[in-house]
């Protein structure tokens, strides 16, 4: 399975093989610096739409909690956003997957290594990649699949998919328990920069733009 998938691991910049920058048809570009997690206007996902979806959990004062999404890749790896790994050691992170409700995911896999991209820039959100090495192999099944990363930017107009447990509106602080899904359409970097550059931002070769007339990964 080869695809450009935009997971809601960040607000306007989710990571799979490239960064993900959203263009809102109504409001124009969304700020690269507003890092949250939203799937606004989505619908509950089905198992076939997201068998690669993972939940990144971190241990804090009040126990373990969901902080970001990620994608199952390879034999024992998850790719997520670098900003999701900031300040965490492997011992404080774990990956959960196999299911749609983030409170009842069937498999828990501890993290043994955190590889945040050395060129990650928290100001420009460039190189926003982090690879997590897991303790145990990912056992694939009808509900658990790894995803093959793209090696070239998808053409303008190609389909993309946004999935995640992000907030469903900008006015709520509550995360849904059901995984959310919405289709999107790839926008070329050239067209995307025509919108972003006047706002003082540059869409780099590590980013992919996408748009949806009725749904959003931003608030």
From TrEMBL:
- Does the UniProt entry include the keyword Disulfide bond? yes
Q: CDD domains attached here?
A: Tryp_SPc
- InterPro entries per UniProt: Peptidase_S1 (IPR050430), Peptidase_S1_PA (IPR009003), Peptidase_S1_PA_chymotrypsin (IPR043504), Trypsin_dom (IPR001254), TRYPSIN_HIS (IPR018114)
Which Pfam families does the entry mention?
A: Trypsin
Q: Which stretch is the leader sequence?
A: 1-19
Gene3D superfamilies from the entry?
Trypsin-like serine proteases (2.40.10.10)
Using the record's annotation, list all stretches that form the Peptidase S1 domain: 39-219
Q: Which UniProt keywords apply?
A: Disulfide bond, Hydrolase, Protease, Serine protease, Signal
Q: Name one GO molecular function term.
A: serine-type endopeptidase activity
Query: This chain belongs to which protein, by name?
Result: Peptidase S1 domain-containing protein
């Amino acid at each position: 399975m080869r695809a450009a998938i935009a997971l809601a691991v960040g607000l306007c910049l989710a990571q799979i093989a490239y960064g993900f920058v959203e263009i809102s048809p109504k409001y124009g570009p969304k700020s690269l610096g507003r890092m949250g997690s939203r799937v606004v206007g989505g619908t509950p996902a089905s198992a076939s739409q997201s068998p690669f979806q993972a939940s990144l959990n971190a241990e804090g004062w009040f126990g373990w909690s969901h902080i970001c999404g990620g994608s199952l890749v390879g034999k024992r790896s998850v790719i997520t956003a670098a900003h999701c790994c900031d300040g965490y050691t492997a011992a404080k992170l774990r990956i959960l997957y196999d299911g749609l409700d983030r409170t009842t995911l069937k498999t828990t896999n501890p993290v043994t290594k955190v590889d945040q991209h050395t060129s990650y820039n928290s100001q420009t959100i460039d190189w926003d990649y982090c690879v997590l090495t897991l303790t145990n192999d990912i056992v694939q099944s009808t509900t658990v699949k790894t995803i093959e990363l793209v090696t070239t930017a998808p053409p303008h107009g190609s389909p993309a998919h946004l999935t995640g447990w992000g907030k469903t509106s900008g006015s709520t602080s509550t995360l849904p328990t059901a995984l959310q899904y919405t289709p999107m359409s790839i926008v070329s970097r050239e067209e995307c920069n025509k919108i972003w550059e006047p706002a003082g931002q540059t869409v780099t070769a590590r980013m992919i733009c996408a748009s949806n007339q009725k749904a959003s990964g931003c608030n």
